[in-house]
Queue: 3 jobs
Job 1
Amino acid sequence: QVQLVESGGGLAQAGGSLRLSCTASGLTFSNYDMAWFRQSPGKENEFVVGISWSGGTNAYSNAVKGRFTISRDNAKNTVILQLNSLKPEDTAVYYCALGYKVSGSLISQRLQYAYWGQGTQVTVSS
């Protein structure tokens, strides 16, 4: 049974930082591309960032580019999302997602990801 468990969300002030992690089990983690999406009330699920199975390729949404950094440790079955220079508009539930051989052009498409975590809340106060 595949399971993704996120942690690290919480409350931060604008300009502050948080570190999210997502640990996978039940599959060969290093075979899969991963991504983070987020959703805030009244808004659609939004792509944040994706990373290839090797960690060699990543893609960021314009909303977070230069502020967020994704990395992965295949030995620990974990992907990390470092959130810096947080803004109130970053407030959302953040979900990690796992997909097999996600084409670069489709990395932001949620339907490419078969497995999802339960989400972790990030709240940024102004």
Job 2
Amino acid sequence: QVQLVESGGGLVQAGGSLRLSCAASGLTFSAYYMGWFRQTPGKEREFVATINWSGSSIRYADSVKGRFSISRDNAKNTVYLQTNSLKPEDTAVYYCAADKRPYYSGPLYSANSFGSWGQGTQVTVSS
């Protein structure tokens, strides 16, 4: 059974930074596309960033491009999201997700493509 556990969220002032981590188990981590999505109350889950199994293909939402950075450590079964220059509109629950298919060539942007999800970590940015 796939398990994804996010950590690193919290309360930060605008302009600050947080590093989110997602530890994966129950899958051959190095074979799967991973992604970060976020959601606020009343809205659909929103694409933030995705990274392919080797780390050679990365995509960002326009809203976070230049401020956020996704990376992965396949030896530690962990994917990261470094968030810099945070804005109040970045406030959301951030979710880690794993693709349904191993070695998919991608790119991936849609939450529907991901079959496993973590419980989420709250990021709150104060103005």
Job 3
Amino acid sequence: QVQLVESGGGLVQTGGSLRLSCAASGRTFSSYAIGWFRQAPGMERVFVAAISSGGGGGITYYADSVRGRFTITRDNAKNTVYLQMNSLKPEETAVYYCAVGRRSYVDLRPGSYEYWGQGTQVTVSS
């Protein structure tokens, strides 16, 4: 069993920044890919970013809409993954979730992730 706890969400103005954290416990964290997804009210949960396992920090992958503005990193010693979000837009208002993958490599599909956190709300005001 794995427990994930997200933090760092909040209210920010357009163009602002937030740093989300995802702390994991209960499994060998470093062996699995970690993903961030977001879900706006009435919408499907969509992929944002992910990072593979790996001692060098892992291979990263981003949704086209966030590439160049968001950065995902992991600290395996702390069992924590971070999502630095810059130049935020109002349409990015959503609940952001982190999830532990079933494998070491990145997958964009929510179904490929086995454990999920409770989510953290990000609200970007216009």
